[in-house]
Amino acid sequence: MIIAFENYLRLQTDLNGADIRRIGALAVPRKLRRNEFLLREGEVCRHKVFIVSGLLRTFGLTPDGSEHILQFSPENTWTLDAESYDRQIPSHYSISAVEPGEVLLWTKADFDGLLEEIPQLKSFAGQLISRNIYSGRQRLLTALSATPEKKYEDFIKNSPELLSRLPLRMIAAYLGISLKTLNRVRQAQLLRS
Amino acid sequence: MIIAFENYLRLQTDLNGADIRRIGALAVPRKLRRNEFLLREGEVCRHKVFIVSGLLRTFGLTPDGSEHILQFSPENTWTLDAESYDRQIPSHYSISAVEPGEVLLWTKADFDGLLEEIPQLKSFAGQLISRNIYSGRQRLLTALSATPEKKYEDFIKNSPELLSRLPLRMIAAYLGISLKTLNRVRQAQLLRS
After folding, report:
1. Which of A50, A73, A119, B131 could form a disulfide with A56 if both were Cys (CB 3.0 to 4.6 A apart)?
2. Closest CA in chain A for residue B140
């Protein structure tokens, strides 16, 4: 599991071998069953998480109990609730496994230490945060502006590899449309193609 | 104008007087007329912007020409298009003045220099970015999940001071609802109260 992570760092960064091993050495591996929670709303997010295999989702619940998905995190990506992690306060969101998978966890103390000691890791972390901001802005614009048809088209275009891995109700909860609307959109698309 | 900015830094950070003056010395003041653009879609965002007075909006246009507002920036806040600024590529968004106002601008080269030289400025900038991420997440959840009534209520709760400063069509463009729906929601609210 650590080897997959080290390969990822080798491909994505210019970190040297010694630093990569230092980062890997502090990781705690964990297996996740389908639907297992990594973080529950109200808990403090204590770890930075790298997904080696599987697929996680980050979601919030509205008072009526309906689920809204902020983010899907497939293999070779990172996840956490930033506000809860940075400030060590209870999270408004939950993170759970859509598929069985394997993740690596770093405690905040360990990861903060690594960021201090390894400037290239810090600049790589900064890049990841920036990309998250850019895509978050785009996602907000889509959420504000797009029709259900356009939202679904964008999703297929941006995340084709996720389409077959997700139940439709989760795609609907990610797009901010009802399952009924999603079914209508898909039906119309099938008829057109 | 610089004095108002220096007071802001004194209140918000633990920067010392010499550093505050260094930051202020590189700022270029600019006055904005109502509806004047600071950045147009397709241009590169070349400056970090601090709003001394007035109110700016950041918005994107969809292919049908309708406007969707990502962010309002009142006095004592910062604005820019992060992706365009960081990577010096054309922006997908525009920034323009809702009210006449005064802003301070730093070129990327100047501000990057300040960030290098003044560690407390860097950590303050990091805090601002983090807060932006937290509130962006909350805003996305609202956009995905809330009814028009709830969106409007949240807006009144979170930004009461903006309500009287904005035309209704901009509030609708920020909430991702039509002007007609916003009018209906407001009408129902007036009848209830």
Report:
1. A73
2. A140
Nearest to B143 among A69, A93, A176 (CB): A176
B59-118 pLDDT per residue, tens: 999 888 889 999 999 999 999 999 999 999 999 999 999 999 999 999 999 999 999 999
Predicted complex ipTM: 0.87
Superfamily the domain A2-139 falls into? Jelly Rolls (2.60.120.10)
* pLDDT tens figures, A36-49: 999 999 999 999 99
Q: In A108-181, which ranges are E strands? A: none
Q: Which residues of B touch A68 (CB under 8 A)?
A: 141, 144-145
CB of B80 within 8 A of CB of B49? yes
- Which CATH entry fits the domain spanning B2-144: 3.40.50.2300, 2.60.120.10, 2.170.150.40, 3.30.1130.10? 2.60.120.10
Residue that has been written with the tokens 């295999």 in this structure: A53
CA separation, residue B49 to residues A3, A26, A85, B53 (Å): 44, 40, 28, 12
